[in-house]
């Protein structure tokens, strides 16, 4: 990361647009469609950011009174973020199908035959939205697939591909600053939105997650419903044992994007396991676990459901949930050893 850069040196940074075009030029047969899709997603993120920054004043924080497909109370900003992403992707013309946390069915954008683009976008338009009212960071998560051959008019089946098939994935954190991080399978790069010029600037080139970390993130209020191996692992992390680098620290914001972003930069492990309330875990495979798993692996980390690599899971439904252990490779490995009962 470039630190200590003075404001008058803003021109020294590469913009997201410049970065995308440079990458595109390196690919021989590129049509530019994928670059335009990333551009469209970044435009939608800027619009959502615009709403977020004015939310308190315009009184658009709070809930809509509706329950979404997840059985959760929908926030006004959830609905607004969903609308802005759908509208921008539709206008952009590179996306043929959207799957969103805020919509029960997949949304086809191709009116008929071959109009429209060849990419499928699955997204959580506003993750952690219950935190908005108290001014805590929230985010957007997106996952991109290519439309497989043979789908003239794409249906949800076209989107049900393994995470390993993703051609791109990213997230945006709307925090103390707004940062967009994405991968296309060639490393991970982060861009900070400069509000004065309205551009995402390359602030975090080639992000690598530390192999090990000192922080773990989990909702420990659910402790009594965790499986035995996980309880043992947590007790181990809390041990007073300086020679083993223990105890570790807990950091849990309750906004997956924000917890993930911190762990990606500093090293750490985020866990949302199976609980009594959420036996299959809480987070959604297709637009939360898969995209973050793609990113973390590209940064040198790991993601598992406790036993299987997230990117190898076979999806069955758009909104299916999965237990999730994601972050520094060594921490994910240790968690798996405890879950298998190999350590106590
Ligand atoms: P959401 O997509 O409906 O916002 O739910 C996902 C969120 C994550 O951002 C966060 O890590 C988790 O739910 C928090 O859940 P809990 O309150 O059970 O700890
Ligand atoms: Mg979410």
Explain this structure.
The chain is α+β, with helices and mostly antiparallel strands. It has 2 domains: 3-204, Fructose-1,6-Bisphosphatase, Chain A, domain 1 (2-Layer Sandwich); 215-339, D-Maltodextrin-Binding Protein, domain 2, CATH 3.40.190. It is built from 8 helices and 15 strands. Strands 4-3-5-6-7-8-9-10 form an 8-stranded mixed beta sheet, sandwiched between helices. The protein has a 5-stranded mixed beta sheet with strand order 12-11-13-15-14, sandwiched between helices. The protein has a two-stranded antiparallel sheet with strand order 1-2. Strand 8 (178-183) and strand 9 (188-194) form a beta hairpin. The protein starts with 15 loop residues before the first helix and ends in a 5-residue tail after the last helix. The site of 2,5-anhydro-1,6-di-O-phosphono-D-mannitol has 11 residues, from strand 5.
* Ligands, ions, cofactors: 2,5-anhydro-1,6-di-O-phosphono-D-mannitol, magnesium ion
Q: Any idea what the CATH superfamily of the largest domain is called? A: Fructose-1,6-Bisphosphatase, subunit A, domain 1
CATH architecture label of the largest domain: 2-Layer Sandwich
User: In what range is the share of β-strand residues?
Assistant: 15-25%
Would you list the SSEs in sequence order as H and E?
A: HHEEHEEEEHEEEEEHEHEHEEH
Total DSSP E strands = 15
In short:
The chain is of the alpha+beta class and 344 residues long. It contains eight helices and 15 strands.
Helices and strands, with pairings:
Blueprint: H1 16-25, H2 33-58, E1 63-67, E2 73-75, H3 76-92, E3 95-100, E4 107-108, E5 119-127, E6 138-146, H4 156-159, E7 168-174, E8 178-183, E9 188-194, E10 199-204, E11 215-217, H5 228-237, E12 249-250, H6 256-266, E13 269-272, H7 285-298, E14 302-304, E15 324-327, H8 329-339
Parallel strand pairs: 3-5, 11-12, 11-13
Antiparallel strand pairs: 1-2, 3-4, 5-6, 6-7, 7-8, 8-9, 9-10, 13-15, 14-15
Helix pairs in contact: 2-3, 5-8
The chain binds 2,5-anhydro-1,6-di-O-phosphono-D-mannitol and magnesium ion.
